[in-house]
Amino acid sequence: MTAQTPFIQIKSVSRVFNGGNGVHDLSIDIPRGSFVVLLGPSGCGKSTTLRLIAGLETADQGMIAIDGKDVTNVPPSKRGLSMVFQSYALFPHLSVAENIIFGLKVRKTSKDEIKTRLTEALNVTGLQGYEERKPAELSGGQRQRVALARAIVAGHPLCLMDEPLSNLDAKLRHSVRKDIRDLQQRLGITVVYVTHDQTEAMSMADIVILMKDGRIEQAGHPADLYLKPATAFAAGFVGSPPMALMPASALPREVVPAGLDVSRLTFGIRPEDLALTTDTTTKAWGITATVNGSEFLGAETFISVAIPGTEGATARLPGRVHIAPGTQVSLSWAGAAAHWFDGEDGRRLAPTTSRQSAREPNTSIETDTAIPSL
Ligand SMILES: Nc1ncnc2c1ncn2[C@@H]1O[C@H](COP(=O)(O)OP(=O)(O)OP(=O)(O)O)[C@@H](O)[C@H]1O
């Protein structure tokens, strides 16, 4: 096996349930030591993919290898992995320490070895001093740490996590997700993590695998998904507030790059890439819109606008911005910030010649349309 051999290989794997749902023809290579997030809406096949890697589901076709070994027909206990679930799955009548070492005892590990591993797991999860408590005497975050410690003591190089933070409140989610990421890096293990929360995925992953309808929509570094979404679905799923997507036919013809077929074209723009001005008398390049409302979040303000023939858009402006609902505004953007997708199959299009790019050096759109003392 070479250093380049993926730690997990999934080749053309399908698992289709009665009714046709499931996962279809999945192929994924996961590098050793990476943090991989399976992301997507409910029912897209994330858990089924994780369960296939775990061996809790059997593939109808295809091959799964872990660490160079074909495990397609190997039972879960022989795959050398641990799992952390949303429900923690702790034994209520056992103490923290007993919960953590339960698996080691079952496997008849020596007393000395159990003691060493328990101390290490308590240290890395910050649970020293809680050994004798029962799960009911712990907070949700502490319970999830016990589940993590139990996964760690097993000493497996692969840990699978299925929505482990969904029972925690927003503040705890934030701190525990940092703990999980730190732990993964410190231990050098490979983690495959399921979530439908794109913020969680973006902040934790080395690689995000975005799924839709049982297939991979896009796989890559979080920045790739954000900056170069492969499809309109990926563009709309990653990012908050989401990218505005609208038929190009709703735009003035001159803002659409030459060579693209306007009749089947979707335009996308991120909230932070929209410049907005209330000065609609100047003939600015861009489109006109009507303000629906604004949301002040402290460091920034989201302005939502209505654009005829579309579902509208959101502009993300720094600081506090007041614009009364009903105000007419002019929206513009740098040509390179625009995303173009096939209006039918949703695939990203890369225009080679762009009228607006050609105009860009002379127009200074953003300077021209800076918000005049709102
Ligand atoms: N045992 C099963 N029998 C029948 N259909 C199933 C079974 N398990 C999953 N499915 C279906 O397969 C599809 C994928 O399910 P899966 O649980 O993998 O989705 P998911 O992305 O993890 O969703 P969620 O975020 O809601 O957990 C869904 O349509 C689901 O209803």
CATH homologous group name of the largest domain: P-loop containing nucleotide triphosphate hydrolases
Named CATH topology of the largest domain: Rossmann fold
Strand composition percent: 25-35%
The gyration radius over C-alpha positions equals 25 Å
N- to C-terminal distance: 63 Å
**Principal-axes shape call:** globular
- Count of beta strands: 19
CATH class of the largest domain reads: Alpha Beta
Ions, cofactors and other bound molecules? adenosine-5'-triphosphate
The low-confidence parts are 353-374
Number of domains: 2
The arrangement of helices and strands along the chain is EEEHEEEHHHEHEHEEHHEEEEEEEEEHH
The helix tally amounts to 10
Q: Helix coverage percent of residues?
A: 25-40%
pLDDT averaged residue by residue: 87
Q: What's the arrangement of strands in the largest beta sheet?
A: 6-7-8-3-9-10
Q: Helix/strand-derived class?
A: alpha+beta
Architecture (CATH level 2) name of the largest domain: 3-Layer(aba) Sandwich
Please describe the biggest sheet, giving its number of strands, its sense, and whether it closes into a barrel: 6 strands, mixed
Region (Disordered): 345-374
Protein name: ABC transporter ATP-binding protein
Pfam family, one: ABC_tran
GO cellular component, one term: ATP-binding cassette (ABC) transporter complex, substrate-binding subunit-containing
